Amino acid sequence: MTSAPSRTHHQITFAVLTVGVAAFALLQSLVMPVLPTVEVELGTNQTNVTWVLTAYLLSASISTPIMGRLGDMYGKKRVFVIALGALAAGSLLAALASTLPVMIIARVVQGIGGGVLPLAFGIIRDEFPKAKVPGAIGLIAALISVGAGAGIVLAGPIVELLGYHWLFWIPLIITSLAGVAALVLIPESPIRTRGRINWLTAFLLSAWLVALLLAVSQAPKWGWGSPKVIGLLVAALVVVVAWIVAEARSSNPLIDMTMMRIRGVWAANLIALLMGVGMYAGLGFLPQFLQAPSSAGYGFGATVTESGLMLLPNAIAMFAVGLFSGRLASRFGSKNLLVVGSLITAGSYFMLAFLHSSEIDIYLANAISGIGFGLVFSAMSNVVVASVPQEQTGVASGMNANIRTIGGSLGAAFMASVVAVGASSSGVPVESGYTNGFAMLGAAGVLASVAALFIPTMRRDKKTHLEDTADLPHPELAMVAGGTLSGAKSE
């Protein structure tokens, strides 16, 4: 009885979740455009400084599903606060770092905060009225993409006005405030999953992720045919098979393989992989394209700040779409949004590939991609949440977010390899490298739209009530995954 009043104010819970997720999203991308500055400040070289990104990526990939599982077991609020604490601690260490090893350790600690996204989804599903779940999840999902875009935009002004250390002081302040607010204002989840962490499967999961992401992140430097890359890829394949077998046989799996076979889940995960390829590779390489001197035959000679502003339409469009994602899902269905959003994203990258001679082209293409990503990421999260039992929300959405990160790593590695083909003796890429690279990202969007066709749709039976397919076990969330059907009454 005493906790009832606090659970009625779901708007306050949403505000706290938004701040925490926004801080995590910013940390994903703030460092990307200013790596050359960090390289000089820490006295290292271009090869070594990439570990500032790789360490964060590896840590987040490993921690995200584990944190989601811990939240399902011990309480989503509790683990959400711990994740924010890790973000704050890592940000503090990074802000004070004066050497590369300390910065890398700081980024590993920050990566533990990757659990904020699946935990936020789980808290929303536990605390919000059913009719408001789609819109809230859509906004949080869109916020990840918006935050990544905003990080690219804000990095330049922050470094120019305050110095690169403030790339970490600002997130430290935000995460600290969000952590205190979460501790005080968010009610603890009443839903628990019995069991314990299976540390063997957690180790195997970590091992194949490390091997895979290390291979693809270093392949542009070591060479795709090098013994080290091939050895890591073979090791990743062997360990992933061992991990799947161990999870399937475990009475207490970290990732429920039965859950992963649900059509809505595996289709959404495939979309996450492909769209992760497009988003992270696009955000990572478009600033380099814009900053290239016009003497190279392309580019605009933009500064870090100017290139960030040219990406601003992407973040604005994603946020605007996120505001209406719940209504769009109810009206058209999340499956349809995924198909259309993927195709819109593909179109924006094909535009960048073949139409990039003026700044107007860049602004327009970025606005279009923002619309596509906003539709896809909000709808994809809704499908995952609607496809699994409530007690598996954290681990399912965590794995989806994790697969998006893996896709981003793959996309960045492939993009680096494609762009480098035919580079001049000075190391400056030729225009055809970027053209082929952006076309590759467009093809990934087309494949994502095909994957979206496999997501189950809702149907209405002769007795005029909604029923789901065998792969969607929650008819009360029909409006989330399939949309409100004609003649059916929604909440």
TrEMBL record:
UniProt subcellular location: Cell membrane
Domain Major facilitator superfamily (MFS) profile: 13-460
Protein name from the UniProt record: EmrB/QacA subfamily drug resistance transporter
PANTHER family in alphabetical order: BLR6921 PROTEIN, MAJOR FACILITATOR SUPERFAMILY MULTIDRUG TRANSPORTER MFSC
Ranges annotated as spanning the membrane: 12-36, 48-67, 79-98, 104-124, 136-158, 164-185, 197-217, 229-246, 266-287, 307-325, 337-356, 362-385, 406-425, 437-455
Topology with respect to the bilayer: Multi-pass membrane protein
A Gene Ontology term for the protein's cellular component: plasma membrane
The keyword S-adenosyl-L-methionine is annotated on this UniProt entry: no
Top-level taxonomy: Bacteria, Bacillati, Actinomycetota, Actinomycetes, Mycobacteriales
Domain of life per record: Bacteria
PROSITE patterns linked: MFS (PS50850)
Key words of the record: Cell membrane, Membrane, Transmembrane, Transmembrane helix, Transport
GO MF annotation, one: transmembrane transporter activity
